[in-house]
Amino acid sequence: MSEVLASSERKVFRPRPRMGLAELMRDDIVSGALPAGSLLKTIELSKRYGVSTNPIREALHQLSGEGFVVLSRNRSAQVRSLDETFVRNIFDIRTLIEPYLIRVFVEQARKDDLDRAREVQQRLEVTQGDQVEWDKLDEEFHGIMYKRHFNGEARAIRQRHGEVVRALARRYPISSARRATVLKDHWEIIEAVEAHDADRAAQVVERHARGAERHLLLRMREGA
Amino acid sequence: MSEVLASSERKVFRPRPRMGLAELMRDDIVSGALPAGSLLKTIELSKRYGVSTNPIREALHQLSGEGFVVLSRNRSAQVRSLDETFVRNIFDIRTLIEPYLIRVFVEQARKDDLDRAREVQQRLEVTQGDQVEWDKLDEEFHGIMYKRHFNGEARAIRQRHGEVVRALARRYPISSARRATVLKDHWEIIEAVEAHDADRAAQVVERHARGAERHLLLRMREGA
DNA sequence: AACACCCAAATTATACAAAGTCAATGATAG
DNA sequence: CTATCATTGACTTTGTATAATTTGGGTGTT
Q: For a tag on chain A, would you pick the N or C end, based on fewer CB atoms within 10 A?
């Protein structure tokens, strides 16, 4: 019937544009490309990301579940502000969860896990300038210790919070002093795990998280 | 142009059916109406709930964010199994978060909060048979102590986990022995808060949560 | 200032097209 | 003859498009 819209004009069902529209949008939120408080209108977003409104709405629902946007009926979604309070909240939870996670690793750590951790740690030592590479290795280091924990819920919470923190850290890069402290903490964690000292490992991990929080907050205050 | 579909046949845009399709579906999941592991096909669901597939897809995304269903690309969503492992995982996290939450309440508790808590507690004492009423009051009791905590992320996690547990508890009702223990725990919490003893409050709350976990697991094993 | 009205945007319904999944079927090699 | 692998087709999800309708906020009138 209607040849008005020739096939040249019609958008042509991008098969798998998606390796995560929600992930894309989350990155844009945390990186500041979608500023806190801004109104996310589905049509604008659909233009911005080159998809129709349906996937946008689904992504918004997912992000709402994750706490990055606030939905209200018949109103534009709003970007959740990622301020100091938010960072503090996230790190409070992280400070509870990470010691809980590491205790299991102390008991179940295999030799090849520890070898891998040491290897990653050595690569961290020589990674100087590159923030992204550093973040990747740091996540891998901790990921080795948590990835086999039975509590998938806890792992998921830590994972989500980690993504926020990493994205924020890209905005406020790490100092070299902090890097040195991180490296020291990591070696101490490895030592504690090798010694099967769960209490010490948990304690170091907690201190490690608190240190990361303090450093990020400091950077946010002076860098904003 | 097309009058082919007369208004008699066309579904007529239900104006505000939705105060939570996702909530409806979540209840059906936790209550077992949508059995664990079953495949959630969007068309079937749209018939079941009397809406079109669009809202269904959005609800599925939200439930996926909340962890009740598992989405994989190009495959039907699957209902997450709410088994013992899941309960244990949730309570592990709850056992970390609730003591953290109560500590702030010990410091900030107002007189009217405590009065209200006592009032709710007295209503709990006389609530015998009604599981739903009991759950409502129990949630209100703890809600009083947590609702003003600054950490909205932690509150949200606890809230979500609480909903699951309550829904499961409807399937495996509480025993009268457990009720007595809960009442004793609650008075002990009130006492600790009044005495400004954060450590004791945290300790009691942790024990309270562990007790709830043990009781629910027991019921699940014998009741299934 | 109170009120009605209008408009932009969201919400829902529906239809259709493209692409992935899965299983059954059939062909082929050993 | 049997086991393995490729093809096919039904079913399902994912995406695009558009119409009908509600909602909430802003605008203008009294």
A: N
Q: B103 vs A206, B92, B123, B189, CA distance in Å? A: 18, 18, 25, 11
Same domain, B120 and B152: yes
Distances (CA, A) of B210 to A166, B146, B162, B185, B192: 33, 18, 14, 12, 18
Mean pLDDT for the stretch of residues A7-30: 69
Tell me the average pLDDT of chain B.
89
**Matching residue, tokens 């007369």:** B6
Which of B57, B86, B150 shows the shortest C-beta gap to A85? B150
Cβ-defined contact of A62 to B66 (cutoff 8 Å): no
Looking at the structure, do residues B179 and B109 belong to the same domain, yes or no?
A: yes
Indicate the residue among A79, A105, A123 that finishes a domain: A79
Number of domains in chain B: 2
C-alpha span between B146 and B142 (Å, rounded) = 6
What pLDDT sits at residue B30?
A: 84
Q: What is the average per-residue pLDDT within B190-204?
A: 97
Q: What is the pLDDT of residue B18?
A: 45
Give the bridge partners for B77, in sequence order. Answer: B40
Would residue B59 count as lying in a domain?
yes
B61–A66: do the CB atoms touch at under 8 Å?
no
Average pLDDT, stretch A200-205?
98
Residue B3 placed within a domain = no
In a domain, residue A6? The reply is no
